[in-house]
Amino acid sequence: MIRKAGVLACLVLLVGGCGSGEMPDPNTLADLKLYVFDCGMLRLENVEDFSVGNNETEVRDLSVPCYVIEHEKGRLLWDGGLPSTTADTEGWQGEGMLLRLDRTFADQLTDINLNMSSFDLMAFSHMHFDHVGVANEVQGAKLIIQKAEYDAAFADPVTLPGADPSLYNKLKDAEQLFITGDHDVFGDGRVRIISAPGHTPGHQVLFIDLANTGPIVLSGDLYHFALSRTDRRVPSFNVDADATLASMDRVEKFLEEEGATLWIEHELALFNQLKKSPEYYD
Ligand SMILES: [Zn+2]
Across the chain, what does the average pLDDT equal? Predict the structure, then answer.
């Protein structure tokens, strides 16, 4: 990145010569990148658990993305999709809620010359199975997690409804950074974890200030459907309905203040329009 910026600087300074060694990097803002990966799909029979009537939406298929954020100070994995073993079987599988995964995240990473040891940091919107599917495969990354989420996910027995510790138990051995509330990941304000509890005790969303795309927020499961957002629907299985509504208010205010766009992670109609790795947003 620095080399690229250096070349640009050289072009700009061509008239005055360009042989004076190291140049300051004038263009680090453009170095922030976001890669979107297809980490599976969910197919629901019934959407009533999301407090959405089956006749209110025709949507039954949900996207399950993973994201890689490249910052000059490190590489962050945000959300871990469905378990990689889902890809062992072709097509839809399961009962009730169906799952599918066409290509593992680890395999997709090879397209951009990365592997499961390439991350400096990992953070998950929350610890449900469709967000931590690859958690145990990540090697050597520091886990950033809300203390409340950690305490529930690692309690014995687990007190986080819907969590499957067999998918994430190795995180206990990872280097950990416990946070309580918002967290500026790289210290320059451009990648920020925003606390949004309610779906789970330590649910969180991610703000990324992209230079060309503009600021965006990855929703986690603050909302599952477009309708969940417009009509403030709280799934019946959320651990705290009041906290969820307060988190919706807080994130909506944040979006307005930052002029940021919200990407609902599970919204397939949006996901289908997004560029996928190896393409990226910057
Ligand atoms: Zn989810």
Answer: 91
Q: What residues have a C-beta under 5 A from ligand 1, the ion?
A: 130, 221
Over residues 27-75, the pLDDT tens digits come to: 444 589 999 999 999 999 999 999 999 999 999 999 999 999 999 999 9
Q: How far apart are CA 247 and CA 251, in angstroms?
A: 6
pLDDT value at residue 31: 87
Q: Which amino acid is at 169?
A: N
Q: Give the model's confidence band at 15: pLDDT under 50 very low, under 70 low, under 90 confident, else very high.
A: very low
- CA of 21 relative to ligand 1 center, distance in Å: 49
Alpha-carbon gap, residue 244 to 249, rounded angstroms:
9
CA of 139 to the centre of ligand 1 (A): 23
Q: What Å distances lie between residue 2 and 31, 88, 150, 227, 282, CA to CA? A: 9, 41, 37, 43, 15
Tell me the average pLDDT across 168-188. Answer: 98
Which pTM was predicted? 0.89
* Ligand 1 mean position, distance from CA 62 (Å): 9
CA distance 172 to 149: 13
The domains of the chain are located at 2-27+34-273
* C-alpha 28 – ligand 1 centre gap (Å): 33
**Fold (CATH) for 2-27+34-273:** Metallo-beta-lactamase; Chain A (3.60.15)
The answer to whether the CB of 65 falls within 8 A of the CB of 81 is yes
Reference 162, options 236, 270, 77; nearest CA is 236
